[in-house]
Amino acid sequence: MEESCFAVSGKPMSRIGRQTISVPQGVTCEVQDQKINVRGPKGALSVDLQQGIEVNIENSIITVTRKNDEKQTKAFHGLVRSLVANAVEGVTNGFQKKLELVGTGYRAALQGSKLVLSLGFSHPVEVVQPEGIQFALEGNNKIIISGIDNHEVGQVAANIRKVRPPEPYKGKGIRYEGEVVRRKAGKAVKAASAS
């Protein structure tokens, strides 16, 4: 184990948990009743603090520490630090995921706040925009999902992708931008290679 992952006491510490978080200008953070409230230009988020985890805010620097070395507390140390860092990033810049529709005739359209998907089914699929999430389109085959809550943005993107996941032969379906779909050889290719 490297020296860098040891605290002054000589005990191993969470590599992620011990990293400090700098608070940008225009963002306020306060700890209140086992919860940290983060407010910024894009909105407000709160993160629940697990038992045994402490958050200190000093000179626009957030430090996450743990009170003991119990297994569960150690497990939550890095998690809480990541959640707080995501909250700060979310209220400052926000998060976004991009999805691509691949397939002949596959397209997306916005009807008010509702996303309407044509995916080769006998009917269009409608996705209602959840609170705190925004839908946008690039052309008619690229969907941009944005919001301040990283978990929420990722979950909505995963739910939309689940409607028509990429199939392994032609790669048709909904995929994340830049996602590489592992393709299978079809029967015709197998037959040709056998002969």
Question: What is the structure about, briefly put?
Answer:
It is built from 3 helices and 13 strands. It is 23% helix and 35% strand.
CATH architecture of the largest domain: Alpha-Beta Complex
H and E order: EEEEEEHEEEEEEHEH
Q: How many β-strands, per DSSP? A: 13
Task: Quote the distance from N terminus to C terminus.
Answer: 54 Å
Q: What can you tell me about this protein's structure?
A:
- The protein is of the alpha+beta class.
- The chain has two domains: 3-92, Ribosomal protein L6 (Outer Surface Protein A, domain 3); 95-176, Outer Surface Protein A, domain 3 (Alpha-Beta Complex), CATH 3.90.930.
- Helices cover 23% and strands 35% of the residues.
- It has three helices and 13 strands, in the order ββββββαββββββαβα.
- The strands form four sheets. A four-stranded antiparallel beta sheet has the order 11-12-7-13, with helices on one face. Strands 1-6-5 form a three-stranded antiparallel beta sheet.
Give me the secondary-structure topology.
Blueprint: E1 21-22, E2 28-31, E3 35-40, E4 43-48, E5 53-58, E6 61-66, H1 71-92, E7 95-102, E8 107-111, E9 114-118, E10 125-128, E11 133-138, E12 142-147, H2 150-163, E13 173-176, H3 187-194
Antiparallel strand pairs: 1-6, 2-3, 3-4, 5-6, 7-12, 7-13, 8-9, 9-10, 11-12
Quickly list its features.
single chain; 195 residues; alpha+beta; Outer Surface Protein A, domain 3; 2 domains; 4-stranded antiparallel β-sheet; 3-stranded antiparallel β-sheet; 23% helix; elongated; disordered N terminus
